[in-house]
Amino acid sequence: MKFTLSVLLLLITAVTFAQKGEIIKTEDGRRVFLKSDFTWEYVDALDTESQTAITESLKPADGNVCSLQADYTEPKLDSKIQSKLKRGHSTIEYVKKKVAKDQNCTVEDVLLLSFSEQKAKAVYHFCANGTKVTYKRLGNSIIKGSKLF
What we know:
This protein is of the alpha+beta class. It has two domains: 19-59; 64-144, no CATH class. Helix content is 32%, strand content 26%. The strands form two sheets. A four-stranded antiparallel β-sheet has the order 4-5-6-7.
């Protein structure tokens, strides 16, 4: 009897947890409730004033805009480190492709401003489409500078 009751209680608990949704936060700061039936809704209803404030905050700040001279040349990376990174597909060419994809521009629009590079980790500062962005490499993983693993 106890075994049957325990199994029934476990089954009810599992079904209850399976029906819950998940609350996530979008890039622009809004919270969204994802339901298990593949629908969603905003948790916080926003009025038009706060919506325009969010839109304004997404625009790059003046300190985030990069303006380069016409004769700017990118700094040279250590060729030994770059040759070791080829196996893991994390050379500067792959990083630039990821930056271009994330920033919706071409690879030619991505310029390396500065870097701090070792075999195990690196920090790259780019100018992509006129905006300064930072990317980090830990091993073969490449992420945007402000994001966490």
